[in-house]
Design goal:
Length: 264
C-alpha cells in the first residue's frame, strides 16, 4: 500500500471494510453463476459428506455458516497486509513476505467460501489452492532460514513449489488432503528443529499457540466430518469453528514471524 497505517483501531476497521468488500464481490460472482450449482461437476466430498451442514438447495450459499465463517481468513489476511504497511515495522520478517502470507490467507478464505457456497469441483479447487499456498509458504520460509536463502530467491522457490502442488491438485484431486498434510508437517518440523534456533529473539509461544489452535480445530473438524458433532440445520457448525480457529492459527503464525528481530 502507498500509505502507512499506524493506528491499530484504524487497521482493524480497514481490514473489516476490505473483508466486507471482498465478500460483496464474491457474492456478486456467485449470483452470476448460481444458484443452480448442480450444472457443475460436484466436489469430491459429495461422494461421502461435505461436512455436517445441510446444503440449502437453491440458495446462493449452500452452506451459509461454513461459507461466512471462511471470511475469518480474509480478515486476518488484510490485517497482515495493513500491519506490514506500518511505519513502525521493525522485524526480520520482510514486508514482501508478510504481504504474500496475507494474500495467501485471503485466497484461503475466498476459496473456502467458494467451496461451501457451491459444493462444486471448481470451488474445491480454489479451496485447496489456498491451503497449498499457506503450507508451501511455511515450508519455504523454514527452508530459507535454515539454508540462508535470500528472500527474492525464496519467493522464486515458493512460486515453483506452488506450481507443482497446483499441478498435482489438478491431476490428482483425490490426494489433496494427504499432500497438504505432508507439506504442512514437513514445514513444522523444519521450522521447529532447524529454522527457529536461527531466528533472533523470536517468540516461539506464538508458534505453539498456532499449533494448539490447529490441533483443536482438527479435532472439531473430525467430529463434524464424522457426524459426532452435528446439527445439520443449525447455523452453529463445527466446521465453521474450524475455519475461525484456522484463521486464528494463521494470525499467530504471522505474529511469530513478525517477532523475529533483525540480526545485529
Amino acid at each position: 500500500m502507498a500509505f502507512h497505517i499506524t493506528n491499530i483501531t484504524a487497521k482493524l476497521l480497514l481490514a473489516a471494510i476490505w473483508t466486507a468488500l471482498s465478500a460483496a464481490m464474491t457474492a456478486g460472482l456467485l449470483m452470476i453463476f448460481g444458484p443452480d450449482w448442480s450444472i457443475f461437476a460436484p466436489a469430491t466430498c459429495t461422494e461421502t459428506r461435505c461436512f455436517c451442514e445441510m446444503p440449502r438447495t437453491g440458495a446462493i450459499l449452500l452452506q451459509p455458516a461454513n461459507s461466512i465463517s471462511s471470511l475469518g481468513f480474509v480478515f486476518a489476511g488484510f490485517l497482515m497486509i495493513l500491519m506490514a504497511a506500518s511505519r513502525d515495522w521493525q522485524s526480520a520478517f520482510p514486508p514482501l513476505a508478510a504481504n504474500v502470507l496475507g494474500a495467501a490467507a485471503i485466497i484461503v478464505g475466498i476459496g473456502s467460501l467458494l467451496l461451501h457456497a457451491t459444493l462444486t469441483l471448481w470451488g474445491q479447487f480454489f479451496d485447496v489452492l489456498g491451503m497449498y499456498l499457506i503450507s508451501g509458504f511455511f515450508l519455504i520460509r523454514a527452508l530459507a532460514k535454515w539454508q540462508r536463502i535470500p528472500d527474492r530467491r525464496a519467493m522464486i522457490y515458493y512460486a515453483l513449489l506452488c506450481a507443482v502442488l497446483v499441478a498435482i491438485l489438478y491431476a490428482l484431486p483425490e490426494v489433496r488432503r494427504w499432500l497438504f498434510a505432508v507439506v504442512l508437517l514437513a514445514a513444522i518440523i523444519l521450522e521447529l528443529v532447524f529454522a527457529r534456533p536461527l531466528r533472533p529473539q523470536v517468540r516461539t509461544g506464538y508458534y505453539v499457540a498456532g499449533l494448539v489452535s490447529n490441533i483443536i480445530a482438527f479435532i472439531i473438524w473430525n467430529l463434524d466430518q464424522n457426524g459426532q458433532l452435528c446439527a445439520p440445520d443449525s447455523l452453529w457448525q463445527g466446521h465453521a469453528v474450524w475455519h475461525l480457529l484456522g484463521a486464528l492459527a494463521l494470525w499467530f503464525a504471522f505474529l511469530y514471524y513478525r517477532s523475529e528481530r533483525p540480526s545485529s
